[in-house]
Design brief:
The complex is a heterotrimer of chains A (270), B (313) and C (742). With 270 residues, chain A is mainly alpha-helical. Chain A contains 13 helices and no strands. Helices cover 70% and strands 0% of the residues of chain A. Among the domains of chain C are: 1-261, Cytochrome c oxidase-like, subunit I domain (Cytochrome C Oxidase, Chain A, Up-down Bundle); 563-741, Cytochrome c oxidase, subunit III, four-helix bundle (Four Helix Bundle (Hemerythrin (Met), subunit A), Up-down Bundle), CATH 1.20.120.80. Chain C has helices at 2-7, 20-25, 29-58, 68-102, 111-133, 158-186, 199-231, 244-278, 285-298, 314-342, 351-374, 376-382, 386-416, 422-448, 464-495, 533-538, 544-547, 560-586, 597-600, 603-629, 632-662, 671-702, 711-736.
Chain lengths: 270, 313, 742
């Protein structure tokens, strides 16, 4: 992994990261330490998703690396972005009618859920998965759509303004059902024969590392197996952590009832 | 006495080492919890006043979670590291489905083990001969239901599953006899589906190999000859193989070298003339439910058959 | 379920008679709960006697006391009995009795459904035990691993009775769980927010939800096994393309959460007993409650740790090992919380508390050996040996059964109005501690000696005879302890000390009423301002709400008919999800010989019939709206159209089936045909069920018996009907639309 071939230092993602960082410094006021940490971690992860071996191997070598990248973009980066927004700043931004409308719209749980879980399923339709790996343009579309879907997914849980958040019990249901959704996909990928993303079954050896990968045990069968498990286990752990945070929020909601934009009052919607 | 704690192969040794670590950790945790509970009882048992109504603090709870979390992560890590080293599945591109050739193929049957030495072509039952210090790849397959191949002193346990080949490494550090058993419930006589692994020095091993390759010689003694006729006149051939004869079925164990085996019936009896006779008289009395029916042989027939079998060395 | 929701409103009639018939016809949650508990205790004795027989057989090497066949039947029946006829009902019983009392409700949400859930159980038990009379009880182990449980290797009818018994008992369990969920969510007394319910109630709510999602995988597995055995499909027959491992996956997706179905209630009981006898509130309520929720979530992702030895592959082993280690954490948290609750408390060593303390230590031992099994290489050595037998008996007896004993001593006064004798109680406690540890501690060593589980006898290997003898003789102590308990109960019922309302000076609402409680449970309720309303009442100076704020009740209570429908739909969804997974597993490759989706199905035609089914959802919505607005005629018309569309869809399916069958594609043809008929067949059955419910509504609607007032229960049927459509969309996509992919 120290092999310089495996790092892509010249990735254009640095530009994006710099811009985002500047924007954060310029426009976000009153961020707490934790929000700064969230922002920096998010940007670091975003950079690493493309610069580190994960990004390089995801480019046609390893399905499992592709899966890690996928999860970083869909779950980790957006969660960090949403968490890095301080309440006051966000309240100011979302005061205006159309922006508020957008916030409300994003808070519709069906939308976020479909976005988050749907993006996972959609980009693993075999020919789409291969095409997005082989064509840079489509690849960019995929990566952007993953981050966007991730933002929509985390919005009802961690939106900076309370009014966009789901009530905790509904939020838990939301996360748990998402966990079931990615579990099903994980099971499918783990136990499917070699067909989920055909391009990884017969990689083009651009960097001349294929043999060392295979001899390290990452044959396509094992690779897909690992990919499926990555799709399955880490997201579920992440969702569980989010559920724990919601539980904490729920048990400590001693103050008067906050107002919610959406969400039914039936915690049984489970 | 404790085969799990008397490892005789690098693999079993590694598992044993891990086990000891986890046992020690567990012991410490148990001691801490017990101690805390005992102290709490001791200090609280005579308290008459109303204790302070303490609802708990998240800080201390999280603090107490840190320790267990570290322990758990650490155990996961060291066991995962060990798992990565014990994989015997041949590393090849799966689309070129041809797997690395196994040295031994073991097939589980209800309730005995068929052992095929792929290097030499020798077939045996319930006995595996291996040379000391050599790591052998064993392919496990099943002819009927799920069994489990387990030699605690030498290797991990591995299920034997119909339609799903499994591989393990088998290796012994020093010569000796190692007990193996079926560990997955597989029907009526699951209890008597034992086998033994004999680890031999290489010269001993090649001696065994040459001897085992020989086909069965025709018996010379008259009663043995009569036994042979009986064998082929009855339905014995429908289930058993004797190399060099027309008997070549694989429902029951291969009998080519039955006389040199140490046990019969999956470990239910020592192999001796008396015990063989007991078995031939009525296998269902020795191993009820076994696939070998009671042929109602009379004593003379039993004597003749056993004489024949004992000639198969 | 539909009819239940309609007549739930006229509450059950109060019963005061104690005759036998009154017990059979009762719908009072306390009596039903008691029936559950008595039923479970009866089978605890039966299963216990089976264990005694096995221990006699194993007391000496090469024993011939039992035949191998009978021994195998015994351990199969012992496991099945303990899991399905003891473990499930005993906790459902306590939950039935206590949950409504603890939340200040009059009864459970659906009293008649509750009675039905219970009576399913004796029926299931009868089917299971009837197999003994046929001469062949099931003998493939309680997890009935295929292919050993399939026809080629198991011709007798034992497994068939096992299948029937489990399905019947399973349906009862799901209905019971729905009831608990609806009760807790809908019937809490004013002031009792969900964050304020006693831990017992919260954890039992989690357990009920877990039952809802954990029984369906078992039903799916059993459905496949049943089709294999009765209709000659080959799901589990490797020779004909089936998979021997699929059963294990499905079974353990059920089987592992099932462990938590038992463990959670034990946690629930201990979380009530320890605080009361430490005179303190539970330390860290939110952690105990929250960790139960986390266990519920994680328990579904760890099943494969039962399969480390089957050769799943390195990565799967490591991932499942990590998940299993993770689930140890929320369990470990609880041990800490209980210990911290005792710390600094005024400990009263009553029998109940003694059992709770023994639970704590013994459960830790069982938990630590559990950690060992989560470390894959150790599992490779110790699984399927007596070490694992010792491990799960430490969890199930040392942990869970001891918690049940604690619960019996703690709540017996409330249930009967009489105290149990403490001196006899302590006798029982010590007999059980000695007997249990004597029996099972040595089995750890037997495992290390290499003794596999489920062997009917063993050779005289060094050490085996001694340890097995110790194990067997220790059973005597447990038997004596049980006799002491029986004697204690009898003695108490005859001339036991009167209990009074609150003999333990306990905290939760069940102690605010008389012992035993009246039929309507409460004459008046104390004000609920904290998690310990009775404590607040008895210790006004130290009332909880003065020191520790808890979220206020906002008065929201969902409609119980809807909760019921949702809960039912979730469990059905999981059932179908597993069947569809089975379809996908067996139809990855659509190009092989023989019938397949590509060469056998008429996608366009089925597409048209699909439109009918989907439109029926729309027409249903119109009907529902009409009912809500009180337009009776329009309601009946649209409902009629809905039924018509449903029937058209079924006719389409019948047409398709006829085509397939006449062209020689039957359920036993190949795996495509088997999975196709299984998935669509079960869906068809559900459509039929829905149509029956709709037809009843239609008939009642025409007689003006379903009117505006019933629009909520009617909406609940709607949830089910829409669900059936959604399932079909998924089925259509996976089976029919995939045809275009190839």
């Amino acid at each position: 992994m120290i092999d310089s071939n495996l790092w892509s230092w010249m990735s254009p993602v640095w530009v994006l990261v710099t811009i985002l960082l500047l924007l954060y410094v310029r426009f976000v006021r009153g961020g707490s330490h934790l929000q700064w940490v969230a922002c920096l971690v998010g940007l670091f992860v975003l950079a690493m998703a493309f610069v580190s071996p994960i990004g390089v191997l995801a480019g046609g070598y390893l399905f499992s690396a592709h899966m890690v990248q996928h999860l970083l973009l869909l779950l980790v980066v957006p969660a960090c972005i949403v968490l890095s927004l301080p309440r006051e700043t966000a309240e100011r931004w979302f005061q205006k009618g159309p922006v508020n409308q957008l916030g409300k719209w994003l808070a519709v749980p069906m939308l976020g859920w479909t976005g988050g879980v749907g993006a996972m399923w959609f980009w693993h339709v075999p020919w789409l998965c291969s095409a997005a790996t082989q064509h840079t343009g489509l690849g960019v579309v995929r990566d952007v759509s993953l981050v966007a879907a991730g933002l929509a997914f985390w919005w009802p849980i961690y939106a900076p303004c309370d009014r966009y958040r789901l009530p905790p019990l509904s939020g838990m249901t939301y996360l748990f059902s998402a966990c079931l959704g990615c579990t099903l996909l994980g099971i499918y990928i783990t136990f499917a024969p070699l067909s989920v993303c055909p391009v990884f079954a017969n990689p083009v050896d651009r960097l001349g590392i294929l043999t060392s990968l295979y001899s390290a045990g990452f044959t396509p069968g094992i690779d897909q197996h690992v990919g499926g498990l990555i799709m399955w286990v880490p997201p579920c752990i992440l969702y569980t952590c989010a559920i724990i945070s919601l539980l904490g929020r729920w048990y400590s909601s001693i103050d008067a009832a906050p107002t919610y934009a959406t969400g039914s009052s039936t915690p049984s919607g489970a | 006495m404790f085969p799990v704690f008397q490892p005789e192969s690098p693999q079993a040794q590694a598992i044993y080492d891990l086990f000891v670590i986890v046992l020690v950790i567990s012991g410490v945790i148990l001691a801490i919890v017990s101690l805390l509970v005992i102290i709490a009882i001791w200090r609280g048992r005579a308290k008459a006043t109303l204790p302070e109504q303490d609802f708990g603090s998240h800080k201390s709870e999280i603090f107490w979670l840190v320790g267990p979390t570290i322990v758990v992560i650490w155990i996961t890590a060291i066991s995962a590291k060990l798992v990565l080293t014990i994989n015997a599945v041949p590393k090849v591109h799966l689309s070129e489905a041809e797997a690395g050739e196994p040295n031994i193929t073991v097939t589980g049957h209800q309730w005995w083990w068929e052992v095929q030495h792929d290097d030499s072509g020798i077939v045996a039952a319930n006995e595996i001969y291996i040379p000391v210090g050599k790591r052998l790849r064993v392919k496990l397959q099943s002819a009927d239901v799920i069994h489990c191949f387990w030699v605690p002193q030498l290797a991990r346990k591995m299920d034997v599953i119909p339609g799903h080949d499994n591989y393990i490494w088998l290796e012994a550090n020093k010569p000796g006899t190692y007990q193996g058993r079926c560990a997955e419930f597989c029907g009526t006589q699951h209890a008597w589906m034992n086998f033994k692994v004999y680890a031999l020095e290489s010269d001993e091993y090649s001696k065994w190999e040459t001897n085992a390759k020989k086909a069965a010689a025709d018996p010379v003694r008259a009663d043995a000859l009569a036994g042979k006729q009986l064998f082929f006149a009855h339905t014995c051939v429908n289930c058993h193989t004797i190399e060099g004869t027309e008997a070549e079925a694989t429902i029951g164990p291969d009998l080519t070298h039955i006389a040199s085996r140490k046990e019969i019936g999956g470990g239910v009896l020592e192999n001796s003339t008396a015990n063989l006779k007991l078995w031939m008289k009525n296998p269902q009395a020795i191993k009820p439910g076994s696939k070998m029916p009671d042929f109602n042989f009379n004593d003379r027939q039993v004597d003749q058959l056993v004489a024949y079998l004992e000639s198969l060395e | 379920m539909s009819t239940q929701t309609v007549d739930q409103l006229d509450a059950p009639i109060a019963q005061s008679s104690w005759g036998l018939l009154s017990w059979v016809t009762t719908v009072d949650h306390k009596r039903v709960g008691l029936l559950y508990i008595l039923f479970a205790i009866f089978f605890l004795v039966v299963g216990g006697l089976e264990a005694v027989l096995m221990r006699i057989q194993l007391a000496v090497p090469n024993n011939t006391f039992l035949s191998p066949e009978f021994f195998n039947q015994l351990f199969t029946m012992h496991g099945t009995t303990m899991v399905f006829l003891v473990g499930m009902p005993i906790f459902t019983g306590f939950s039935n009795f206590l949950v409504p009392l603890m939340i200040g409700a009059k009864d459970v949400a659906f009293p008649r459904l509750n009675a039905m859930s219970f009576w399913m159980l004796p029926f299931g038990a009868f089917l299971l035990y009837f197999s003994f009379l046929t001469g062949s009880a099931p003998d493939a182990g309680w997890f009935s691993y295929a292919p050993l449980s399939t026809k080629p290797y198991n011709l007798d009818t034992g497994i068939d009775y096992w299948i029937l018994g489990l399905v019947v008992a399973g349906i009862g369990s799901i209905a019971g769980a729905i009831n608990i969920v609806a009760t807790v969510l809908c019937l809490r007394a004013p002031g009792m927010s969900l964050q304020r319910v006693p831990l017992f109630v919260w954890i039992m709510l989690m357990q009920a939800m877990l039952i809802l999602i954990t029984i369906p995988p078992l039903n799916s597995a059993i459905a496949l096994l049943c089709i294999d055995r009765w209709l000659e499909a080959a799901f589990f027959e490797p020779v004909r393309g089936g998979s021997a491992l699929l059963w294990q996956h499905f079974f353990w997706i059920f089987g592992h959460p099932e462990v938590y179905v038992f463990a959670l209630p034990a946690f629930a009981m201990i979380s009530e007993v320890i605080p009361v006898f430490s005179r303190k509130p539970i330390y860290g309520y939110a952690f105990v409650a929250g960790s139960s929720t986390v266990i519920l979530l994680l328990s579904y992702g760890v099943w494969a740790h039962h399969m480390f030895a089957v050769g799943l592959g390195t990565s799967a082993n490591i991932f499942f090992s990590a998940m299993t280690m993770l689930i140890a954490l929320p369990t470990g948290v609880k041990i800490f919380n209980w210990t911290a609750t005792m710390w600094g408390g005024a400990i009263q060593l009553t029998t109940a508390m003694l059992f709770a303390i023994a639970f704590l230590i013994q459960f830790v031992i069982g938990g630590l050996t559990g950690i060992m099994f989560a470390a894959v290489p150790i599992d490779w050595q110790m699984t399927d040996t007596y070490f694992v037998v010792a491990h799960f008996h430490y969890v199930l007896i040392g942990g869970i059964l001891f918690a049940v004993f604690a619960a019996i001593y703690y709540w017996f006064p409330k249930i009967t109005g009489h105290m149990l004798d403490e001196r006899l109680g302590k006798w029982q406690f010590w007999l059980w501690v000695i007997g249990f540890n004597g029996t099972f501690m040595v089995q750890h060593f037997l495992g290390a000696m290499g003794m596999p589980r489920r062997v009917f006898t063993y050779a005289d290997n060094p050490g085996w005879a001694t340890l097995n003898a110790i194990s067997s003789y220790s059973v005597i102590f447990m038997v004596l302890g049980t006799l002491v308990l029986v004697w204690n109960v009898v003695k108490s019922l005859i001339d036991g000390e009167k209990a009074g309302n609150n003999p333990w000076d306990a905290f939760t609402l069940e102690w605010a009423t008389t012992s035993p409680p009246p039929t309507e449970n409460f004459t008046s309720l104390p004000e609920i301002k904290s998690r310990r309303p009775v404590w607040d009442q008895t210790h006004p100076d130290h009332a909880d709400w003065k020191h520790s704020k808890t979220p206020e009740d906002r008065g929201r209570r969902p409609d119980r008919a809807r909760v019921c429908a949702w809960a039912f739909v979730i469990s059905e969804a999981i059932f179908f999800a597993l069947l569809i997974i089975a379809y996908v597993v067996f139809n990855f490759d659509q190009t092989g010989d023989g019938p397949s989706a590509v060469n056998s199905l008429n996608v366009e035609r089925t597409g048209i019939f699909t439109l009918f089914l989907l439109s029926s959802s729309l027409t249903f919505m119109v009907a529902e709206r009409s009912l809500r607005l009180g337009r009776q005629a329009s309601f009946v018309t649209w409902l009629g159209i809905t039924i018509l569309f449903g029937v058209v869809f079924l006719a389409g399916q019948a047409w398709e089936y006829t085509d397939l069958l006449t062209s020689g594609v039957a359920i036993d043809t190949n795996l495509f045909a088997s999975t196709f008929f299984t998935v669509t067949g079960f869906h068809g059955l559900h459509v039929t069920g829905g149509l029956v419910a709709l037809a009843i509504m239609f008939a009642l609607g025409r007689k003006q018996r379903v009117t505006q007032a019933q629009s909520k229960p009617f909406g609940a049927i709607g949830i089910y009907w829409h669900f059936v459509d959604v399932v079909w969309i998924v089925v259509f996509a996976t089976i029919y639309l995939r045809v275009y992919q190839s």
